[in-house]
């Protein structure tokens, strides 16, 4: 019994070992943050001192995630937000301001991909859904947040979660890949336009990361082997390996970094 208690205590100590004050006093919004990369980004920002607002399209996912993060001692606010809906985006921003009074960090992570196959076989409806969620909603959410950063003269940090597919398109995921390429351009455009206000905009481009979203890829043995053949580290990444980078890009240590896209792919070749 004592051995089990000691083992559990050791695990808990390791769980909180990364906690720091890097983002003390800051407020962060992370979209699509109840699972996968978004969840680990929210968790890392919280352990690095930020007050974190999480969101998901489903209330029960929000409630469960809030309980988990609060059990780790994090200051978390959660709400339902479908980023493709204008009212949901406004509510996400307004409730954050009501609760915490400001927004220092925004991480746009939400994405969708309802189709798999040849790009020319994709319907107009599929194109609209992918671009509305992956690109347009990202732009509109940033547009909703930036005026508040400017008003309070906050040196804000915005990170867009793109994908290595935006640099090197995934087979049978053509429209999704194109939408992620658009995010790389959006990052550079907004970095130039917001730089004079001290607001930084960067993006990350994860490779194959072990999440529910990419499950169809990493669970397929033959597809996985083909993808890993050109990956220097010969393994699939984890959401935690994206989270630390986002925390860094959101921090004062990255105060002279903007308009950049950083690939997190274990060495998979990437070039636009």
Number of strands: 7
Number of helices: 9
CATH uppermost class = Alpha Beta
Beta-strand portion reads 5-15%
What kind of oligomer do you see? single chain
Q: Remind me, CATH topology?
A: Rossmann fold
Helix content: 40-55%
Task: From the alpha carbons, calculate the radius of gyration and give it in angstroms.
Answer: 19 Å
Keywords: Oxidoreductase
Family: Belongs to the short-chain dehydrogenases/reductases (SDR) family.
GO molecular function, one term: carbonyl reductase (NADPH) activity
Protein name: Dehydrogenase reductase SDR family member 4-like
Can you tell me about this structure?
GO terms for molecular function: carbonyl reductase (NADPH) activity. The chain is an alpha/beta fold and 272 residues long. It has a single domain (25-206, 239-264), classed as 3-Layer(aba) Sandwich (Rossmann fold). It contains nine helices and seven strands; from the N terminus they run αβαβαβαβαβαβαααβ. It has helices at 2-15, 36-47, 59-70, 86-100, 124-151, 174-194, 215-218, 221-229, 240-249, and strands at residues 27-30, 51-56, 76-80, 105-108, 157-161, 200-206, 261-264. The protein has a seven-stranded parallel sheet with strand order 3-2-1-4-5-6-7, with helices on both faces. Helix 2 (36-47) links the parallel strand 1 (27-30) and strand 2 (51-56). The radius of gyration is 19 Å and the shape is globular.
